[in-house]
C-alpha cells in the first residue's frame, strides 16, 4: 500500500466512511490521520460549485465561472490543443474555487441524435472523442487537481438511466463504447473516472469487476479512483469489491452499515477495503495542495476572451451559397429570432454554469461593423404560434440586404434526465423561416443547439452557420465569424441524417423498460450511413470555409501517411484533414471506413505544407469475440485522406501483417451485419451476435416491485395510493414540459429506483426504510408504514452514535 502509515492511523469505521461522501460534494476529513476533505464539482464546460445547498441537477445557484462551449462544440474544432487550453482555464478556475475533482469531460459515444445529454459529449466516433478528452484532461490536471471522465460506460440514454440494462455485443462495447475511455485514460492519465448508472449486460457498471478492474486497471493501467455517478451506487460492498472507490453523495452511514455487515459475513475483505482507501487517498492527497490556500480570484475578462476564441473554432459553416458570407462592413442586416436576444448557449442539468458574463447576439452584431436595421423576435421560445411576431419579422426582412435568422433547439429540448423524441425544430421556427425567405432570399440561418436537427428549409437558406452551444462568449464569436474576422474551421463530429427514421437505432432507441438493445452493433453514425449507402444531410467531418484547400502527393505506409495540403483560396484558413482506414476484403463485418487519425492545419493564402498523420496501435485492430482480445486481420488496407467521411481526396493501399486469429462469426448467421442492414435485426440474429439469449425487455407488471424498479413503475403497483402518486408525478412532468421548463427533479425522481430513496436523501432514508416504502407500494401499507416510522427513529439514533464514534478517534 502506498499510504500504509495513514491506513494504520484510521479505524475500520473511518476507512469505510471515507468510501462514501460526507455530503453531496465532499469527503470526510480525518485530521488525526492526516486526511483532508476533498471537494468534487460538476464541470464539463465550466465549474459548477454550489455556494449553498448542494444538488446534482443544477437546481440551486452556483458560484460564477466561465462557461465554455459544450463538448459537442469543442469536438467540432477537431483540435486537441484547443481542448487542452479550455481544460487548462476551467481547471484553473476549479482550483481557485477549491475544487479538487472536476467532474468531466463527458465522452459517451453518441449512439442516437436523440440522447438527452449529447450536448455534453464529444462525438459519435470514439477515436475523436478519446483524443479530445485526453487533451482536456491534461489541461485540467496541469492545475494540480483531477479531471474525471464520465460516464463509464455504455450510458447512451437518459430515460430510466438508473435502471436500464445496456444489452450490447462485446465487440461493439469494446470498439465503440470503451475505446474513447481507453484513449482518455492511457493518454490523459486522469486521476479519477466516474462509473455510469446503468447496467451493462446484466451487471451494474459500478459493480462490474471486468469493467472496473480487469479492463480499466489491469489492461489500461489506470491507477486513480472510481467514483459513482450521484446516486449510482447499488450495493456499496459489491462496488468496492469490483473496484469502485467512492460512493457519492454520502448516505450518513447507511452504506457504511452494509459494508461492515459484508465484512462480518465474509462477502468483503479488509484487504479490499484497504486497497480502495489507498487508491482514494492518492487522489485526496495529490490534489490537496492546489486548493489548500483558500478561495482565489481569477481573471474573468481574460477567461471570457479565451471562451470567445474557443467558440469561434467550434462553429461549423454548413452552407454558403454564392459566397454570401462573410458579410462586408456596413451590410444592412435584419436580426430576427428570440435567440438573438437571449442566446441558447448551454444545456440544462448538472452541467449548468453560472456565467461570469454573457454576450448577447444583438449587442455583438451592433458592435461588429454591420448596419443593423432592426430586430424582430419572430417566434416564441415555447413553440406556440404567434402570427403578430411572425408578421413583424417578415416586414423587417423586407428592409434589409441580408437577414440574420437565429434559430435553434429550445432549452426544454435538451436536458439531463430526458431524451428528445424527435429531431425537429419547433414548427413556429420552421414556419418563420419559410415566411422570411419568401420576401428576402438572402437568409443566413444562425443555428444553436447541441444535437443534429432536421432542416426542411435547407434549400431556402442562403447560408447556415451552426454555433452549437457556444458558451458565454458564443455570441461574440458568431459575430466574428459572420463578418470574416475569423474564418470558420469547424467540422461536424457527428452525422446529420436527413430524418430521424434514417438512424440505425431508430426502432430501438430509447429502451423503454428493462433494457436498451444495441442491435445496430458497431454500425453507429457514419459507420452505418456510409456502409449502408444511406444519404445524409451532412456527413461526419463536414464543414465549409471561406477559402478552399487542395490535397496532393500522398505517401503511405502502415505507420501513417504524408501528403501536401494547399490553401487555394484568397483567405487564411484552417483545414481538418482526416485519415480513414478501410479493409475491402474483410472476413468479418466492418464499416466501410473508420477514422484513425486527423490533423488541423492553418495555412495562409497560397501556402502549401507537407503534412503527416501517424497511425497508432488502434489503426488496424478489431476485437475478436472468440479469442477475447484485440486482433489484426492480415492483408491489404486502404488508407484514405479526406475533408470528411464522404469527401475522400487521396487514397493508397498498404499491407498489414495479421495475428492469425480465427474468424469469430458465421457469415450466414449474421448476414444483416455483413450487409450493414441493421434497421430491423431479427431476434435470432441479435441473439447469435450476443452469444446468448436476449434478456427480457419488458417489465413484469404482475410481479411485486423490486428495489431496482423505478418509481415510474408504480403505475402498476398493487397499492392504489402508489398508482395515484405515479400518475400525479407523470402529470406534473408533462405540465412542466408544456411550460418549456423541464422539472429536472421530477425527471430524476420518476426514473430513480426505490433504492435511490436511500442514496439521494442525505441519510434521511435508509435502505431498510426504502424497502418499507416499497412494501407500501406493493400493497402492504401498514407493515411498510411501521417500518418507515421505526426505521426513522432508529436511524436518527444510529447517525448520532456514528458521529460520536468517528469524531472520538479524530
Describe this structure in words.
It is a single chain. By secondary structure, the chain is an alpha/beta fold. It has four domains: 4-291, TIM Barrel; 305-492, Glycoside hydrolase family 3 C-terminal domain (Rossmann fold, 3-Layer(aba) Sandwich), CATH 3.40.50.1700; 526-690, Immunoglobulins (Immunoglobulin-like, Sandwich), CATH 2.60.40; 711-808, no CATH class. The chain has a six-stranded mixed sheet with strand order 9-14-13-12-10-11. Strands 7-6-4-16 form a four-stranded mixed sheet, with no helix packed on it. Helix 4 runs parallel beside helix 5, helix 4 runs antiparallel to helix 12 and helix 14 runs parallel beside helix 15. It is globular. The two termini are 22 Å apart.
Summarize the structure.
This protein has 810 residues and is α/β, with parallel strands linked by helices. The strands form eight sheets. The chain has a six-stranded mixed sheet. The chain has a four-stranded mixed sheet with strand order 7-6-4-16, with no helix packed on it.
- Treating each run of at least 4 consecutive H or I residues as one helix, how many helices? 24
> What number is the mean pLDDT?
96
Envelope shape: globular
Strand order of the biggest β-sheet: 9-14-13-12-10-11
Number of domain units = 4
Gyration radius, in Å = 27 Å
Report, as a whole number of angstroms, the end-to-end distance: 22 Å
Helical content band: 25-40%
Looking at this structure, what is the CATH superfamily of the largest domain? Glycoside hydrolase, family 3, N-terminal domain
